[in-house]
Amino acid sequence: MLSGSAGLAVAMKPSRYMAQENAAVEYAKLIPAQFGEWREDSAVSTAVVNPQQKALLDTLYSQLVSRVYVNKEGRRIMLSLAYGGDQSRDTQVHKPEVCYPAQGFSVLSSAKHQIETAHGAIPSMRLLTKLGERVEPVTYWIRSGDYVVRGSVEQNLVRLRYGLQGKVPDGLLFRISEIDTDSVASWERQDAFVRSLLAAVSAPSRSQLVGSCSDGSSAHASECL
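Now predict its structure.
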């Protein structure tokens, strides 16, 4: 009985990695250096907070992109992408609610949000973080396979659905933030930044950023699987 159960468990273990389908994707090239009113400011000294320490980064992620974009008004938005090919429980993308405190920040608030775009609504999270006098409103989402997920429940649900098909989803953390004490204005600017970025990339590139099931219902869009 035990040997039979062990054999069944091995047979049911997901073995098809979606990352193999996306092996040629290079996120540093996918994100343009200039779009809409925004252009990359490679000389800026403002630090983009890393999601984790380097040893863990190397374990969790195969691609990292960190940039600062500036508009004509001098507003700067920090962009961080972290891609991992294995969204199993131990190697899944880490959420900023955990990562920012690890860097010494306090998370003052956290709320679910939807970014309305011409390509559908993107389920996202808004955080208000603070380190000393630095106030940093943050917007982020996590793509897991074809879905955008928020929180452990949705991450686990998507992983289970793919697991039943023998698949292991890949994952992307998309995070933007700005140093600004006016969080409401900053979050509105961040939403506009996302809309401008998505308008500037191709449909296949958009699906790498927001999946193909991000229609506002996120992990509940079972028809996408």
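Helices lie at 2-12, 27-30, 54-60, 96-102, 151-163, 183-200, 203-210.
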